[in-house]
Amino acid sequence: MAVANLSSEKNMGMWGAILSLIGGFIPYIGSVVSLIGFILILLALKGISDAVGDERPFKNYLYGVIFAVGGLIVIVALLLGTFALVPAGWHLSESAGIGLAIFLFILFVALIIGAAYFQKRAWLAMYEITGTREFKDAATWVWWGALTAVIIVGLLLLLIARVFVIIGFNKMPAELGEEPAPAPAEEEVIW
């Protein structure tokens, strides 16, 4: 494999990870900032995937984003659809309301775990490609954070995973690959 210069993808990924992290703490426009960050990460992973000929980081991260967005749309549709089907003046029974809440909670947990599974695979692929240990650590933290997200500790672990992604992009080598070996020079034969 020839040497691939990834300095722009490295910076794009780092800034995307920073924006996606701080977007959660900014009121009003935080979701837009996070969206810009996720797009920058996707573009960085696409550039890296194309440069090294390995689509795993981009595809897995994209699948995770699609899984999360699709799952949120399904949850909102179920919630709105349930209340739209109830005729005016009727009220859901207490047991139906509790059942709906439990179903939506289980769906939400499955959404978090499914999206985390694909993110974990993306960061493990980045570790294999770049050799940057922080991507492997990010994969571990994402996975355990998603599994323990039911309790508040999981959200802290997901935050730690995002910090490791920032560090991983920062420490990632700007160039990947090997210089092609020079062709052996033909020796001149003097008679």
Automatic annotation (TrEMBL):
Keywords annotated in UniProt: Membrane, Transmembrane, Transmembrane helix
Keyword RNA-binding tagged: no
Pfam families on file: DUF996
InterPro entries linked: DUF996
Protein name: DUF996 domain-containing protein
Chain ranges passing through the membrane: 12-41, 61-86, 98-118, 141-165
Signal peptide: none
